[in-house]
Write a structure and sequence with these properties.
Blueprint (H helix, E strand, L loop, with lengths): L10 H17 L17 H18 L8 E5 H9 L10 E8 L4 E9 H5 L16 E13 L2 E11 L2 E3 L1 H12 L14 E2 L6 E5 L2 E5 L1
Antiparallel strand pairs: 1-9, 2-3, 3-4, 4-5, 5-6, 5-7, 8-9
């Protein structure tokens, strides 16, 4: 397994590693698109290992000083198998069972089970706040499109639902901010701003069922 920073057992290192992983996954995702996420029954550790090898390749290319362009194709089944097996330990606490579906026209679907208790209790809420009334482990689905260029990704959110009930986009921003915060970025990722891509990634080229990482 690749070590992404020194001292991987230290809490600060783990937070930075999770934050970088979340940034890549966020750039690949957001909502119910034309495609359908790979059934968990068909996902295997071997598929996840294939993605781990590709991540290792991406990391090697990040340190390559040559002007050559590198392209690495990530397949949807590999991504979801990695999230289920090898990458599960890198996910933030309270986020489980994530799946990503990539459809036509840069459309992406992200589904996951989130622990809404921790998010709800992080601050005081008024009666107009939807998270005031939600708690426990609940399924969340977000849908939208992802575009990228010049080393940054832009997410256009179309819809978020919690247990099938539509929610304001502001709720998704709070969820994303909570699960992507790091010591260097305590507010987490902003969905209304370009998201810098790590590891010298210049572009993500999305097609149904796959994402091509360009470095």
């Amino acid at each position: 397994m690749t070590v992404w920073c020194a001292g991987p057992t230290e809490p600060a290192c783990r937070r930075r590693r999770r934050g970088r992983t979340a940034a890549v996954l966020l750039a690949l995702a957001l909502a119910q698109a034309a495609g359908t996420a790979q059934s968990p029954d068909t996902l295997t550790s071997a598929l996840g290992a294939q993605l781990q090898q590709k991540i290792d390749t991406i990391l090697r290319h990040a340190g390559d000083a040559s002007p050559a362009t590198h392209r690495t194709t990530l397949l949807e089944p590999e991504i979801n198998a990695y999230l289920r097996f090898q990458g599960a330990a890198l996910l933030p606490e309270g986020l489980t069972d994530p799946t990503i579906s990539i459809g036509d026209a840069h459309a992406v679907t992200v589904k996951a089970i989130l622990d809404l208790d921790a998010i709800r209790d992080q601050r005081a809420r008024n009666w107009l706040d939807p998270l005031q009334y939600l708690g426990g482990q609940m399924p969340v689905t977000a849908r939208g499109t992802v575009s990228s260029a010049n080393g940054a990704a832009q997410i256009a959110v179309e819809q978020i639902t919690i247990s099938g009930v539509p929610m304001p986009v502001a709720v998704l921003q709070e969820l994303v901010g909570y699960y992507t915060r790091t010591p260097d970025q305590p507010q987490g990722t902003r969905l209304d701003q370009p998201i810098p891509l790590p590891y010298r990634i210049s572009e993500l080229r999305l097609a149904p069922g796959e994402a091509v990482v360009v470095q």
